[in-house]
Amino acid sequence: MFDVVIPHQILQFRQLQVLDLSKNKLVGPIPSDFMNFTGMTQKPKNIENAYADHYMYAERIEIVWKNVDHVYNLMIAAMAGIDLSGNSLSLEIRDGLTTVLGLRYLNLSGNHLSASIPEDIGNLVLLESLDLSRNKLSGEIPIGLAGLKGMSSLNLSSNGLSGRIPTGSQLQTLVDPSIYGSNPGLCGFPLKDCVNSSTPTETETSQAEDREALWFYCFMAAGFICGFWLHLGIFLFSSETWRFAFYQYVDNMQAKVTKKMYSCMSRFHTSGSE
Are residues 182 and 206 in the same domain? Predict the structure, then answer.
């Protein structure tokens, strides 16, 4: 068993398509020059023809893919993949991994990887299985992950991820909430709804109604004053008795409107502070 960093001599095997260093004692960062594995970085020009005959070879190999041990015999598809699970690798997931464009599976679970999931992980368009569970990853799940159309197995559990789970045609098919488990800051399907979801809450609805009521009474007060002065001004000022009655009526209406406005403003500020 290794008890050192990932040996750089491995990078000399450029045509390597399956790298399995799982369950060792590897420490330190993941090398940034995985793009040297040309056998993994090359992808079919036409993704739909990724399983064509010239991407087949004869071999017997055992790999852990989608959380299941698989044994392939004779003619098998060129399932380019990297498994570094069950080690003590640390620091961030290097950008070099997201340049290995031919990857079908990537397993980095059970390490001490930190920082965030690389934003450009969406470049791995052939990726079908991704396991980053049981690390120390933080931040939000990149939007690019939702664009991986071939993704059929995902495990991001037991990290420190937060924010809304991206929505995408493929991610919506992964309905098992356990794949996001033990990430207290995560929300959205298939976990609980986010507090700031697009669906209005009762508080937001109440605030909107208060704002509408406030504007309504403001416009009503302005229209009332302008309309009465414009249409009844001449008639009312011709008689002292009518003038006094008008002023008293206006004062009463002004008091009622002002009281209602202050009530709406008080409710709005109170609900906003909560």
Answer: no
Tell me the CB-side half-sphere exposure of residue 167, using CA atoms within 13 A.
Answer: 6
* Tokens 């950008």 found at: 95
90-108 pLDDT, tens digit each: 999 988 889 999 999 999 9
pLDDT (average), residues 115-128: 93
Contact 19, 10 (CB under 8 A): yes
Find the domain containing 22 and state its range. Answer: 8-187
Do residue 183 and residue 211 come from a single domain?
Answer: no
Looking from the CA of 242 toward its CB, the CA atoms found within 13 Å total: 8
Residues 85, 175 share a domain: yes
Are 32 and 126 in the same domain?
Answer: yes
Give the residue carrying structure tokens 């109604």.
Answer: 209
Distance CA 229, CA 233 (A): 5
Q: Are 78 and 17 in contact (CB under 8 A)?
A: yes
